[in-house]
Design goal:
five-stranded antiparallel sheet, rod-shaped, about 35% helix, Immunoglobulin-like
């Protein structure tokens, strides 16, 4: 029997069994995919390529981390420097305010008029020193060191001297006041010959020392002083002043004594 060549005459029997490849359980569970990947990886050529790829990725990640770490460190450094600058500025401001306050109200201890030297009953004399605090706060731990010497006025004997007395005093506190506190009085004695030399401008007397105190702002103030005392004839009289001017006054006293 000849088969019909007309496509319409063809029939398909869907009921007949056809050969279909079954899907394995490994493939359905995804195990096959991993197995194929593993088989791909273990090939030497593929392994070398993968190592190169992962090495490049690791290098790239390291570079990115390094850049990020450097940026983060830079930001932290800038923040630290900014904090330090702010702290320094705050300290400078506080120090400036303290200095300004110190300049306005700090204790100011002085010896008004300097140390005086007189001869109430020649050749017995005395040295007096009065202290005053003309500031606005309490002065603490005041130290006064004082020495009295007699020196020759002759240039050849400028280095010859005799210490008449040497004293050291400590005062715990001195409040601010406009009047002097009770002074220190130090008696001393010259020989009759020394007293005559002083009156004739052959010798003169010097008081020198240091006034040291805390000004109420934890600052120690040291004030060295040196006073010279020169007696001359009736025209010259007596002169008291800074030791640096002593020689000029001695020459003047001797010049006037010759007139």
């Amino acid at each position: 029997m000849e088969q019909s060549s007309n496509p319409k005459d063809r029939t398909i029997n869907y009921g007949e069994s056809q050969d279909v490849r079954p899907i394995s359980a490994e493939t359905r569970g995804g195990v096959g995919w991993w197995k194929r990947k593993w088989q791909f990886i273990i090939v030497p050529q593929h392994s070398n390529a993968l190592v190169a790829v992962f090495s490049a990725l690791l290098f790239l990640a390291t570079v990115v981390y390094t850049v990020f770490a450097a940026f983060q460190w830079s930001e932290m450094k800038n923040a630290t420097q900014a904090s330090q600058r702010a702290a320094i500025a705050a300290k400078d401001s506080a120090d400036l305010a303290r200095k300004q306050m110190e300049g306005l109200v700090a204790a100011i201890v002085d010896i008004p008029g300097g140390v005086s030297v007189d001869f109430p009953v020649p050749p017995f004399g005395e040295a007096r020193a009065n202290l005053i605090n003309s500031g606005h706060v309490l002065a603490h731990d005041i130290h006064l060191t004082l020495s009295v010497t007699i020196r020759k006025t002759d240039e050849d004997f400028a280095a010859v001297r005799r210490t008449i007395l040497s004293k050291a005093e400590t005062v715990p506190t001195i409040p601010p006041t406009t009047s002097t506190r009770p002074g220190f009085i130090y008696p001393f004695e010259l020989t009759q010959s020394e007293f005559t030399q002083v009156m004739n401008t052959e010798s003169y007397i010097i008081t020198e020392g240091i006034l040291d105190y805390e000004n109420g702002f934890d600052s120690r103030i040291k004030l060295p002083f040196c006073y010279a005392y020169i007696w001359g004839g009736q025209v010259f009289g007596r002169w008291t002043g800074d030791c640096g001017q002593a020689q000029s006054q001695i020459h003047l006293a001797k010049k006037l004594a010759k007139q």
